[in-house]
């Protein structure tokens, strides 16, 4: 059988990392990334890129933990290598602070991040409005550098990149044997998934290089995440809102909330406002599907719906998607040997 032709639809963090896992696992495949938008115009470019997971109701906790752990281990190695600056990945320490004692003493990911511990009384003096908190070190991906780094690795492995809007997956059937759907919120229209909905997020990217520690208010709505080139101030979570226009009242509200946590941000400069739609679902759709029309078949693997946690779990879900691509390759070999009988 000829080398299988695989198309990954989507060039956000999920599409590019899935393409990389597929080409690393099955180097004989001929692989292409097909996307309407590439960096810097994807939702992934808006994200803060922090590795702090959000719990989703539809996936068992041990699976969410596994995805997070695989992602953390992968980015730990990159951050600890000469690649770190180009990949835009780095360690970042800070605090998650609460006004009242949280329900969960230790979240499921507390033994994956580094040095998770309750904050000391001395640390809490920095946050007079808060009564307790947790200190830890985690990892952060800066975008677009991380997406550009993934693209560079893919191109070095011979992967082709095509800018194209796909109206339905079947249109790829004449060119590819296997299609991996990593379209993020675009999957709502692409495959008509009514369980997928947007959770709009507005953030500010500001120049405040003196801010070195992250600060996250316990509800996760207000956060200050320092990156290599800018600090991300957030945020909002607006369920079912499809608007990509920045709201000036929200900008002021985010800025005021962040200054209440870190007063030195009053001096922040070069404020840029960004909006993105988190592709949200009760659980990530990681699934194989066979599409058929008039006796012809197209093997599909879905990997979308990462909501607020695309960066926190992208490598774990990419590995699982690559495993499903492996099952598709085995099925193709099976079809081809049966056809010869
Ligand atoms: P996207 O980045 O949206 O990529 C989808 C790709 O599919 C794009 O290339 C698009 O053009 C393409 N596409 C869609 N439809 C089609 C089509 N029909 N034909 C061709 N191409 C198509 N997560 C974290 O883990 N940590 C954070 O700190 C964090 N902060 C965030 C802050 C904000 C404000 C927002 C909005 C999100 C945040 N997230 C965070 C969530 C994270 O951004 C998402 O989970 C992640 O970006 C989803 O990646 P994706 O690749 O699935 O989607």
UniProtKB/TrEMBL annotation:
* First-level EC class: oxidoreductase
For FAD, which residues are the binding ones?
Answer: 43-44, 166
Reaction(s) catalysed by this chain's protein: D-aspartate + O2 + H2O = oxaloacetate + H2O2 + NH4(+); D-glutamate + O2 + H2O = 2-oxoglutarate + H2O2 + NH4(+)
Q: Name one Pfam family in it.
A: DAO
Q: Name one GO cellular component term.
A: peroxisomal matrix
Name a GO molecular-function annotation.
FAD binding
The main location class comes to other
SUPFAM superfamilies xrefs = FAD-linked reductases, C-terminal domain, Nucleotide-binding domain
The protein's UniProt keywords, in alphabetical order, are: FAD, Flavoprotein, Oxidoreductase, Peroxisome, Signal
Which residue windows are transmembrane per the record?
A: none
Q: Which GO BP terms sit in this record?
A: D-amino acid catabolic process; L-aspartate catabolic process
Known cofactor(s):
FAD
| Role | Selectively catalyzes the oxidative deamination of acidic amino acids. Suppresses the level of D-aspartate in the brain, an amino acid that can act as an agonist for glutamate receptors. Protects the organism from the toxicity of D-amino acids. May also function in the intestine.
Concerning its family, UniProt says:
Belongs to the DAMOX/DASOX family.
Q: What is this protein called?
A: D-aspartate oxidase
